[in-house]
């Protein structure tokens, strides 16, 4: 007769590291930690500063808050809840919510998305597997609410910026259900 014995399974619980960050006007700065640098190295969130801290855009910070990767504190060391942070971000930039939905959607699709102020656009997007600094962004993105009006002059200006920076123009239209539809615009020669 064979005797059966129960084998206990030992489960390793992975300790989730939450990075502490501070809200400073229009940006968020992480603490000096290996976890913040590792987050940058793996996913290219933010920009590494000289003091081993990472500077995040408001979009990156809100996204990481939503994913449970960071906790953001104000200058009085009071923790921001998601809604409070969103309120501050909207105060800084009135169209923040529309832009955030495009940012979130593109990040969730596996692309790296960064701000693109120096290009005269809202965001720049890199192909999957391409990290900023290794190659150039493929698209510049303009988030727009479906009810917004854009003149032909504004449209032509956005297209000209994309063409002059050798990037493709992507318009991300956010509807009332917060779904995003993308239109890629290219120059063609007749």
Per-chain topology:
Elements: E1 19-24, E2 27-30, H1 34-43, E3 47-48, E4 54-56, H2 58-66, E5 70-73, H3 82-92, H4 96-108, E6 112-115, E7 123-126, E8 139-145, H5 152-164, E9 168-174, E10 180-185
Parallel strand pairs: 1-5, 8-9
Antiparallel strand pairs: 1-2, 2-4, 3-4, 6-7, 7-8, 9-10
Helix pairs in contact: 2-3, 2-4
Features:
190 residues, alpha+beta, MutS, DNA mismatch repair protein, domain I, Trna Endonuclease, Chain: A, domain 1, 2 domains, five-stranded mixed β-sheet, globular
What's a quick, concise take on this entry?
With 190 residues, the chain is α+β, with helices and mostly antiparallel strands. The model has no long low-confidence stretch (mean pLDDT 88).
How many domains is the backbone divided into? 2
CATH architecture of the largest domain: 3-Layer(aba) Sandwich
> In what range is the share of β-strand residues?
15-25%
Q: Which structural class matches the secondary elements?
A: alpha+beta
The level-1 CATH class of the largest domain: Alpha Beta
**What is the tally of helical segments?**
5
